[in-house]
Request: fold
Amino acid sequence: MVLQGQEVRLADTITVNGTAYPIPDDPRVSLLDFLRQHIGLTGTKKGCDHGQCGACTVLVNGVRINSCLTLATMHDGDDVTTIEGLGTPEEPSALQRAFVEHDGYQCGYCTPGQICSATAMLEEIAAGWPSDASETLNGKVRLSSEEIRERMSGNLCRCGAYANIVAAIEDVAAGDRS
Amino acid sequence: MRPFQYTRAPSLAEASNLTAGENTLAIAGGTNLLDLMKLQVETPGQLADINRLGYADIEDTDDGGLRLGALATNTETAVHPRVRSDYPVLSRAILAGATQQLRNKATNGGNLCQRTRCFYFTNIDQPCNKREPGSGCGAIDGIAKLHAILGTSDQCIATYPGDMAVALSALGATVEISGDKGERSVPVRDFHCLPGDTPWIENILERGEIITGIVLPAPVGGTQIYRKVRERSSYAFALVSVAAIIELTDGKFSRADLAFGGLAHKPWHDPRVGECLLGQVPSDALFDKAADILLEDARGFGENDFKIPLTRRTLHAVLSQATEDAA
Ligand SMILES: Cc1cc2nc3c(=O)[nH]c(=O)nc-3n(C[C@H](O)[C@H](O)[C@H](O)COP(=O)(O)OP(=O)(O)OC[C@H]3O[C@@H](n4cnc5c(N)ncnc54)[C@H](O)[C@@H]3O)c2cc1C
Ligand code: SF4
Ligand code: FES
Ligand code: FES
Reply:
């Protein structure tokens, strides 16, 4: 007997920024299209739709992923955080504020993905995860600009605002340390 | 994307049953499969979601090795304390691949089964014997920069694009597989196939077989290096990569386990290359000899001719570095 997906679901909903939403019927809907078109959270952007740009980066249960390469229907019971959930214009997160202060963008299209990505990256560094740029796999991560660039390489910026993006992240990371 | 039915497999047995059918594929992280479904390179009528079956743990084996669950993510594997300290070549290989976002979703089983990045394969308007048997190979006289120089056939010259499996090949890891006919274990070195006359067959998995884990043998120590040469320093597939586990005793090679990525339809492991180093004192002449053996049958296809000297130099660099580190 073939059990349908529904029968082994953890929940009938996906939680996004604290609100539960029903899972779409069409299994083809990517998490990205679900966020933008089904529940109207257009902060998350579609750049390539193929995992090649990072504009669609969101946090799922605190982990950053490309929302274009996963199906909404696979996320029953999961907790998703998008750029809208990180802060508001009145109360921006530290990274949101730092991107504004440092001009960490030009057109702004890649920015939501950059900020979601950087938010998770600081957690990964706090957890001591190494990267390809780390000299050793086991030591404490030294937050150089090389480390930030490697860890943020999944987020492309066609405007080339990279220098200011790195400065914004360094600023927040320095604040975290003090 | 073509319409498909989505089914969450409630058990491993059911996952096997489902994927034994003609038109059903397992989906794990989805980072390769969904990409290809959007391009209509893959057009399954049904997806069997295997994500909540378990098989996501990383645990010690009785003989001191480590079992990596097929559904553990690449990130969980690369940052695992034992992988970092006992199998650093594996951490390094995973960290050199894709991006943090992709590695967070990509699973170990899916990574082994990822398909080639050949431009003709991913473009349904182009001829490709792998995607459409008998349609011809666009790459042989076309865009072939990423393509193979070893083990090619006149049907297909694609490469296996992954990094993780190259390290697993050097480490001598084993793939654990479960299917309707029971369970079996296959060395990673025998898991992927050469294209031959059947380029659409990329690995030894039969219909209905699911990878449940990857077993690493007890740690061997040594100097472990993963060197990946690519067109930009991050977020790019390997042109050439070398996974090396090297040990020197009294100034002579006492261990030299080597595997290569970017050269063939599978992680390339030629036991003669390591053997020619054993018992010898490191020297440029010796490294050249190892490269001669490795590249004896190498053949370029125009755009990828550069891979032959690049492989020689990368092997040279890795062996020099390992010799220095070990000294
Ligand atoms: C932009 C981009 C860059 C990348 N760069 C790199 C790189 O530099 N190096 C690198 O190594 N990889 C790279 N990748 C590939 C990435 O590592 C793979 O997409 C990923 O590892 C696949 O794992 P998954 O779990 O998402 O597989 P899925 O997409 O879920 O599945 C892939 C295939 O494996 C099958 N499958 C999955 N799990 C099992 C199982 N347990 N048993 C049997 N069959 C199974 C599926 O049926 C499917 O055919 C890149 C990907 C992208 C999109
Ligand atoms: S190299 Fe292989 S995958 Fe690429 S076009 Fe030729 S047959 Fe297809
Ligand atoms: S839209 Fe997802 S990575 Fe580009
Ligand atoms: S600010 Fe325009 S793409 Fe990054």
Summary: Chain B has twelve helices and eleven strands. The CA atoms of residues 91 and 167 of chain B lie 9 Å apart.
